[in-house]
Amino acid sequence: MNHFSFGALRASRLIQPLILACLISLTMGTDILAQDNGIPRDLSSRPIFVTARFFQLKAPAGSSRELTDQVFRMRTTSLIEDEKWIESFRKTYPGFDVALLSTEKRKVFRTSKPAGISFAKQPDGRSLELLLYGAQSPGDGTTPGTSLIPDIGLHFGNDIARPPISYSIQPLDIESGMTYFFAISNLRFSQVDYVKFIRPSAKPDQFNGSEFFLLVAFSVDMDTTVEPERYVDERQSLELQKTAIKQVQPEIPAELIAAGFGGFIRVRVEIASTGKVTGAYIHSSSFPEVNQQALSAARQWEFPGTLFAEDKKPVTGFITFSIQARPVRPDSNLQKASSSTPK
Predict the structure, then answer these.
(1) Euclidean distance between the first and final Cα of the chain, in Å?
(2) Highest mean pLDDT among 24-28, 149-153, 255-259
(3) Strand, coil or helix: 212
(4) Residue 124, Cα to own-chain centre: how many angstroms?
């Protein structure tokens, strides 16, 4: 049917949507009952602010590393630096290489209508999508709580004519200021689909001998979201980037250049009134092999004092690094090694 590894969920294609419907109806039922016990009736109009981060887990193919769908939780304040995220995940999933792919922010409401995040849609109509549902939960039995229900599945363009295949449905009893993360053990990417959905600028044979899984993390803020006062969005940051008085490019390892790798890395930066970058975080990347090099480069950028002539508050914006893939030479040793790797 496609190149994904379906695992045990192939036979449950019709069962998973029923499970999701039951979960939502149960939690929404709690909300209806709670309204008669002093819970505000407008609760469904109050959003849950969710920052969803998608990481890849990479391991040698056939290494027999067992993943589970176990959910872990940590305080978001303990994950401020990118290195903290990677360090925590490597301890949780030993033997896997971890890299961030993308960051998305969504408002989720306690209704049956989900907030959605979609990966690249394929010419055959397939798309890998995350649907986020919010609902009231029983809580501790006295004070009602809130549930976040992520549903990650493969869609085929028309959910009525051809129901999607769900890889993971995880009801999370959430608290503000917490991050919840888990691997999707049933979603193992083949080299072909890894390129199609995650790395469209790459070639499948560049990943011979590797297998990939998705790791998702949800950082939750209940009813409030803290955005910096001076925020420059991704489009405006293209102009901001041009004003930098010191620009440092990432150092790309020679073996990646020789192998024909390329892509972009977008780094979210915080710029102090001195013009120096005081914080740098990967926002999205199609070249995760050089995420760390991009962070190191972005932390060295400097901007003119005129940016703070009228307002001394820090500026939050983005620096985007674009690395063009170079054609692989026919006599490349790396290409010879790749062509001799068993598929």
Answers:
(1) 20
(2) 149-153
(3) strand
(4) 24
The domains found in the chain, sorted by start residue, are: 7-222 (no CATH), 234-323 (3.30.2420.10)
Which among 135, 132, 67, 118 is positioned nearest to 96, based on CA atoms? 67
Give bridge partners of residue 65 from the DSSP assignment: none
Q: Structure pTM?
A: 0.84
> How high is the pLDDT of residue 43?
61
**Does residue 157 come out as left (phi exceeding 0), alpha (psi in the -120 to 50 range) or beta?**
left
Q: Is 263 left (phi over 0), alpha (psi -120 to 50) or beta?
A: left
Give the separation between CA 51 and CA 176, rounded to whole angstroms: 12
Cα–Cα distance for residue pair 197/313, rounded to 1 Å: 39
AA identity, residue 325: A
Helix (H) or strand (E) holding 234: helix 234-242
d(CA 263, CA 265): 7
Which token pair is 58?
């990479």
Cα maximum dimension of the chain? 75
Contact 79, 88 (CB under 8 A): yes
